[in-house]
Amino acid sequence: MWHLIVDQALPTTRFYHISGVGEIRGHSTLLSALVEMWRLKTHSFVLPTGKVTVTLEDVLHILGLLIDGEIVTDKPTTYAQTKDLPLLQSFEQIGTYSWGFAILVHLYRSLCHASLYDCKEMDGSLDLLFVWAWE
C-alpha cells in the first residue's frame, strides 16, 4: 500500500528521477582522494589539470532535480528546520522548489567539513559526487 502511494506522489514532486538512482557504496578511496583535493577558499577540486567543481548544471543532469525556483536552504544542520516542514505539505508545491541548489550547498558544506577535520564519514549527496567524478 505504502509503495503505491509513494509511486503516485513522486512524479508530482519531481523526485521520481532521483528515486531510481541507486546507492553507490565501497568507494572510500575515491572519496578520500576527492576530499584531499577539495579547497575551501575556491569550493573546487584542484587536480593536476586545473580546478574543477560540481555545478548546478551537474546536479540537473545527474539527479534530475530542479535548479531554479524558490531556494530551499538554511544554516547547516543535521535535522530538518521546523520552519521548512510546511514546504512538504503540498505535493504539487514540492516540485517548485530548488532542491538541486539545496543538495549542492549541502555537498559543498560536507566537503568543507571533511577537509578540515579528521572525518571518518561524510554526508551529503555522495552519489552525485561519485557520478560527477566518473564523468
UniProtKB/TrEMBL annotation:
Aminotransferase-like plant mobile domain sequence ranges: 23-77, 82-135
Highest taxon listed in the record's lineage: Eukaryota
GO BP term (any one): meristem maintenance
Name of the protein described by the UniProt record: Aminotransferase-like plant mobile domain-containing protein
Native organism: Arachis hypogaea
